[in-house]
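Hi U.,

Before I forget, here's the chain from the pilot set. I'm dumping it here mostly so it's searchable later in email.
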Amino acid sequence: MEKIVIGGAAFIFGLGELKEAFEGLGYQVSFIEAPFMNDYTEIEEKNLVHFAADLEEEGILIPMSEYWITKAMENKRARISKKALEASRSKVYFSKLMKENSEKVPSLVSVEEACEGFLEGKKYIVKPEGLYSGYGVRLVESKTDLENALEKCAGVKTHSLKLFGINNKTPVIWENSEGREYSADCFIYGGKMEVVRVCKKIITLIHGNPCTAAIQLIPCTEKIQFALEKWNSILFDKNDISFSQFDFIDEGDNLVPVDFACRVGGGMADLLKMAGNPYASAVKKMAGGEENLTNENVHGYPTQLNYLPVKSGKIKDLSFETLTEKTLYNKKIGDFVPESPSSVASRIATGFGYFASLDEIPVEKLLLGDRFIGNWKKV
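Structure:
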């Protein structure tokens, strides 16, 4: 019996159930996580997890996080195509691959082309090549915005990037796609795909940085299912075993993929738990089992609200109005927060509830400024 090693146990939940699901496909399963993750998060079912900085046992690696994608690229123990691995770390290569297979994607533009476009009222997105979680992403509308964004983008350096073995490459400029943003996770096995989850987002701009203010777990439509099947077929080979994560824009006529990684999306564990265990469910369905998820109740769809800082400083007050019955506080009074929150770690709090539509959410109440955050000067 072949063995699967799932790398990144800190980024998922329901490990016991997921282990049983893979056993239904005929695999032995073990879980591994880097020791430093103990400093960043509480890991569920810790008794099932082996802690090591690298693979110490035989088996097919399935990466669930950026750290383990790095290890998959280094040790070649994953059963993931070279295309998918490379596309995970290069937005330029991902875009090129999609375009070569007749998929609409935002075009890469030069500084000169962007400056000409500004004269016509166009907007562009500046992104660091190869990073993740919104680090350094900026929407720009002028030459000055562009110059500032390129400088900041090139200078993105964080402790987590160093830990995960990721290098910030040359910043790139893209056409801006207008429309509702979505994200989705899939499970790839034997040339087939099962959808793990689909989420609809509210994206708000904070100092030019696109930030996720709300995210809602929704059923997968036929339109989305068809697009995900096509994108995954471009990236993965028939014998691959992997999860995949896409961000995409609904422009009306087209679903436009803007980002990809051969892992699952992060920062949504509590939201996904509202529906059951989507990871195990997708694997069970691949093995011929039935889906055991609940995406909706009488009140609407499972929804996560992110309370975000709009200025840099130390938190002085946490008595802001909450919009759901359940709220988890990610920060405490005295913690520093950045004015351009670009990752899960930047959230002040997260709320969880059911909404029939994202349009019901008063986004302005999720953005926290002077009343709650004190002034701060960089030393």
